[in-house]
User: Fold this.
Amino acid sequence: MILFDGKYEAFSRKPALREFFGDWEHNHKKKPTIFSLVFREDEASMVYARLKQKDAEEVGVVYQLEIRSIEDPVEKVSPIIVRASAEKSIQGIIIQKPPKTLIPSQDWWDSLISKIARGKDVDGLRSDSLVVPATARGILEILRIASKELAIDLKSKTAFVFGKSEIVGAPVARELQKLGMHVRAIGSTEFELSLKALAEADIVITATGKSNLLDSKLLKEGVVVIDAGSPEAEVSISNDSNIAFLSPVPGGVGPMTRISLLENLRDLLQYPLTSQDGT
Assistant:
């Protein structure tokens, strides 16, 4: 079994990003800046945002944290995002989405992300974003590496994607379909039924937030597993596992998500239609 090292892969990508952002700073006489809105009640996101800030600073990007309360009325929070969208010194905006147990409502969330300027939507939160959400991009990059390591053609392969969130499961499923793969997107209501067909899966991607969701004994020989569980693994690995390539928890998707966010910023800065003036 090949065990993917996300920390090493992310580290190996930093020199190229550092060079790009250094050149951008030289040409624009300022460092590129990401504005990050985080809610203090979401302790996991507070920790994760600090890690993103550290990664950003290592490649020459300013990571500006704005900490607010979920209890703040949307009328108070929305103007903060609007101002960041219009601010010429800010090139990327991210809002750390709280878990379902904390988020006031889907309408609350939709209202906030709608205020992000399309050209600054660095985490692909808007439905019309110019980039793929960072976690989804990280997963896709891991799958690309797996296909190279195992010398397999992804076209016509069968992928089971557990989880249908708009920032992970759904965009991953869409991108895999673009690659010509047979994709089965599985939400909570389809879970039990999907287990009967799980042995058909060439690729298994989990992003549900539920630990110990699957047992590797259910998977066929040679399968690729990308576990996007947080903070705990969603796939239980047995000693006699048939897995050919595993992206584990921790150390797999997490580091790749953080580096993908910075790669998204790089792409936005190069995008010909990107506007940095709030439109």
About this structure: The chain has two domains: 21-120, 134-254.
